[in-house]
Amino acid sequence: MYPLNGFLDYLPQLRDYVAKRESSWDRTGGNRDSITVKPGDSATLAEIKGPGVVKHIWVTISCPDKYYLRKILFRAYWDGENKPSIDTPIGDFFGIGHGIAKHFISLPLTMTCDRGFNCYFPMPFNDRAEFEIVNECDVEIGAFYYHIDYELHSKSWNNIGYFHAKWRRELVKASKKEVNLSGEENYLILYAEGRGHYVGCILSVHGLRPGWWGEGDDMIFVDGEKWPPSIHGTGTEDYIGAAWGFNREFYGPLHGFPLKGPEDWTGYHSMYRFHLESPIPFKKSIKVTIEHGHANDRADDISSVAYWYQTEPHIDFSPMPPVDKRIPLPVKTPAEVLEEILEEIRTAEDLEKKYWHYVHSLGRVISRVIGRDAVRSLLNRALWEALYSKTVEKGEVNEARRVLVDVYNKVIDILRRQ
């Protein structure tokens, strides 16, 4: 028997399947190797009779709509099902959220050179596979190029899970609880019923307020188990495979943080974690969640794509929202962020508890403009500690409020004039 001792030793073994491709090649023999899709129309990319397995999908798109990556839906149906097993905006499906295309390369997904999107998740089917896109842009998709590479096999598949991908979004609310002993208010990445296994997600965060949003623990509940779940993490960046926050963008085969926003942690961020080395199986159900901040104390705009395999039928745990609910919220300027916090300072009834939060928020926002080292000298901690001891500790909360309002107003005025 041929030895299988090395990583590529399987290549000499001869194959019994037939390799095929569905693509957008120009049927006239010319070089217009793409399709166009009018606003509101859908286009079937492929209808393939099985048994087979899709091994690779490549697309590139030319569309003038600013948010085409969120407005174009990508869907796939297996074996004649009515509900799509892949149901996600096309940009998020390939690994980065917020309607942004940015170069990164992982094992199952890539956005090569910002424009070439690739998926290598294997997608088996028995009777039929159907792929389609839906154009919910305000304009025509001028050029949609695609390859769908697949294998045709002579025997039907037994004991396999069908590939699923599902996008969802939520403007999460901040909890007032200091501890989380249930996971009920966590952000939901996936809920599935049946038998299958979870293979990962992309997670996109739009930080709406300054401050680190990554204290959220991942909690994965398998087969209806109660809290605490058997899979309980220690922080968002820990789940992604980093530590002590993210100090740079990075991408690897199974985990990455390819999109990093401003230094104050507002704005757009995207990350991924794939459990390809050991998918998380479930026999009855699975609920994949993550906190938004410690004990869900953050109110941010979070979206995700969950990837998993399962037997059919599947449930639609998060119906696709209309196109206007998928558009990213605009990123606020440093002055706009401080103006919003300033309004809260004016009326905050618990300022004594949030004093240092307001001080640190000021420093984080300013760091977007002048850098961290300059902020350390500008916002001298000793001065703020002295103010705290002279006001808040003595019950003079309104005096502390007056100083905070005055400093915020001066900084906002400087930022407006820049």
CATH superfamily of the largest domain: Protein of unknown function DUF2961
Q: Termini distance?
A: 72 Å
What percentage of amino acids are in beta strands? 25-35%
User: What is the domain tally?
Assistant: 2
* CATH fold-level assignment of the largest domain: Jelly Rolls
Give a quick account of the main beta sheet: strands, pairing sense, barrel closure. Answer: 11 strands, mixed
Q: What count of helical segments does DSSP give?
A: 8
Poorly predicted spans = none
What general outline do the C-alpha atoms trace? Answer: elongated
CATH class of the largest domain: Mainly Beta
**Integer average pLDDT:** 95
Please estimate the helix content: 10-25%
Number of strands: 23
Radius of gyration: 25 Å
CATH architecture of the largest domain: Sandwich
Q: What would you call the structural class? A: alpha+beta
Structural topology:
Elements: E1 18-23, E2 35-37, E3 42-49, E4 52-62, H1 68-71, E5 72-78, E6 86-89, H2 90-93, E7 104-105, E8 109-112, E9 116-119, E10 123-125, E11 128-135, E12 141-152, E13 162-171, E14 187-193, E15 196-207, E16 218-222, E17 231-232, H3 236-240, E18 250-251, E19 255-259, E20 267-274, E21 280-282, E22 285-290, E23 301-310, H4 334-347, H5 351-370, H6 372-378, H7 381-390, H8 397-417
Parallel strand pairs: 6-13
Antiparallel strand pairs: 1-12, 2-12, 3-11, 4-9, 4-10, 4-12, 5-6, 5-11, 7-8, 8-9, 13-23, 14-22, 15-20, 15-21, 15-23, 16-17, 16-22, 18-19, 19-20
